[in-house]
Amino acid sequence: MQTRTRFMAVMFTLVVLLMATSSVLAQEISCSACHDDSTLITGKQTSLSDAVHGTGEAFGRGTRAGCAGCHSGGAFSAMVAQGLTPDTVEVGDPNPTRQDCRTCHQVHVTNTEADWALETTAPVALYAFENKTFDGGKGNLCANCHQPRRVIAAADPNDNIAVTSSHWGPHHGPQSAMLLGMGGAGDVAGTPSFHSKMVTDTCVTCHIGPEMKHNFEAKAGCSDCHAEDFDLDIKQAEVEALIVELGELLEAKGLYHDGHPVVGLYPAAQAQALWNYIFIAVEDGSLGVHNPDYTRALLEASIAALQ
Ligand code: HEC
Ligand code: HEC
Ligand code: HEC
Ligand code: HEC
Ligand code: HEC
Ligand code: HEC
């Protein structure tokens, strides 16, 4: 009986050991899964070096706490690990990085291929709004940084809105809100675009695509849905024409000059038109693609408000 118990105990230990070894084997560190003679890494380094993420000057902003979560790759990773949002980061990054491989991928965590996993794909509560969440698959990674920092102030009792600085506006990078049909000013109701609902991984599908290009140009996958003869240039030119018209009206009324809003107190409808111009022309940057209907509606209402 005693021998049998001892035998069982030995067997049990052996099985446990075997299981432990095989799970170690399954995740064995393998530097050469990534560092080999292929262009797996260098191909991405090359395209990233053409992208603003890789070249941009704005990563220097990462030394300030209020900017670090989005502008320093390192501070972004720390923010995600701590469960913070860009507006709750309390320290700047003394050694800010560009948006590099480590910003978006895990890199050297398990030292296996699994480290290509994205740092986060959790839905993003857009902090400038109440109870609005961006849930666009892998594009959630991008929406952490590409979200507005502000919404426009309400009109004062005299129906005016103050333009408080030459950097007034939602801030660069409001693309996630544009996809959802929010972030503009005035009475224009927006709805989430077809693109936000139908393109599974939103930003990542169009800006990276199946070839995994890392220059972040948005040319991927359009022909999955659009006909071969679909002419993006023509569609964008129509929106561009409205942008030019609105820009000229704002210059003529003295609200916008030399690439910046002019500080002052303006009738609400005019300030809202200025906000929409900055939102669409200066900051969203897609010339309508992210949300064709909302973009057009905002531009048309803003032009009407200034005429
Ligand atoms: C998931 C793929 C992957 C695996 C596995 C991997 N690396 Fe890396 N490694 C990278 C990436 C990505 C970079 C950053 C390249 C860049 O910054 O352009 C890098 C950079 C490096 C560098 C350059 C210095 C630095 O830290 O940026 C060294 C050295 C290095 N890895 C060693 C290793 C060793 C040793 C292992 C195994 C223990 C390993 N790597 C496993 C992807 C990987
Ligand atoms: C850590 C924050 C962060 C993440 C994550 C991030 N971006 Fe960016 N992105 C930026 C910043 C900051 C810039 C501007 C860089 C500069 O000017 O130095 C930028 C620039 C860009 C640009 C170039 C814009 C231009 O004006 O030319 C594109 C396109 C872009 N991002 C798309 C994406 C996509 C797609 C993703 C997700 C796969 C993504 N970004 C993830 C912060 C981020
Ligand atoms: C919520 C994330 C976020 C925060 C916080 C943030 N930024 Fe940005 N910022 C971005 C993104 C994303 C871009 C790039 C947008 C694009 O090009 O479409 C950008 C672009 C910029 C640019 C233009 C860069 C260029 O190359 O033209 C400047 C300047 C800038 N930010 C300054 C700041 C400063 C200063 C702060 C802090 C006071 C700050 N940002 C905070 C996300 C953020
Ligand atoms: C702004 C964010 C961002 C940056 C910076 C970035 N990547 Fe990526 N990368 C992505 C996304 C998003 C994907 C698509 C992942 C997917 O579809 O699962 C991807 C895919 C990849 C893949 C394919 C992974 C797979 O599972 O097949 C490789 C390899 C890769 N990236 C390497 C790199 C390297 C090397 C760098 C630095 C030179 C880098 N990436 C920088 C966001 C980024
Ligand atoms: C349906 C495809 C599609 C989706 C989804 C999409 N984009 Fe775009 N995006 C585009 C196109 C097309 C442009 C215009 C590019 C051009 O004119 O060169 C653009 C423009 C941009 C720009 C301005 C680039 C510049 O050169 O100024 C940024 C930044 C950007 N997108 C980021 C994002 C982010 C972040 C998301 C997700 C929140 C996203 N996009 C989702 C297609 C898409
Ligand atoms: C999953 C399907 C899908 C993908 C992928 C897709 N689109 Fe679309 N797109 C649509 C739908 C649906 C509409 C709305 C069509 C309509 O209103 O007639 C649309 C509308 C548009 C419009 C506005 C058309 C107009 O008449 O004003 C533009 C511009 C556009 N897409 C560009 C792009 C570009 C550029 C890409 C690739 C980067 C892309 N789309 C990828 C489904 C898609």
Helical percent range? 40-55%
**What small molecules does this complex bind?**
heme C
Q: Which sequence of strands runs across the widest sheet?
A: 1-2
> Order of helices and strands, N to C?
HHHHHHEEHEHHHHEEEHH
Q: How many strand segments?
A: 6
Quote the average pLDDT.
92
Rg computed from alpha carbons, rounded to a whole number of angstroms = 25 Å
Shape: globular
Total of DSSP H or I helical runs spanning 4+ residues: 13
Could you walk me through the main structural features you see in this protein, from its secondary elements to its overall organization?
With 307 residues, this protein is mainly alpha-helical. The protein is built from 13 helices and six strands. The protein has a two-stranded antiparallel ribbon. Strands 3-6 form a two-stranded antiparallel ribbon. Strands 4-5 form a two-stranded antiparallel ribbon. Strand 4 and strand 5 form a beta hairpin. The N and C termini lie far apart (99 Å). The structure holds heme C (6 copies). One heme C (HEC) binds next to helix 2 and helix 6.
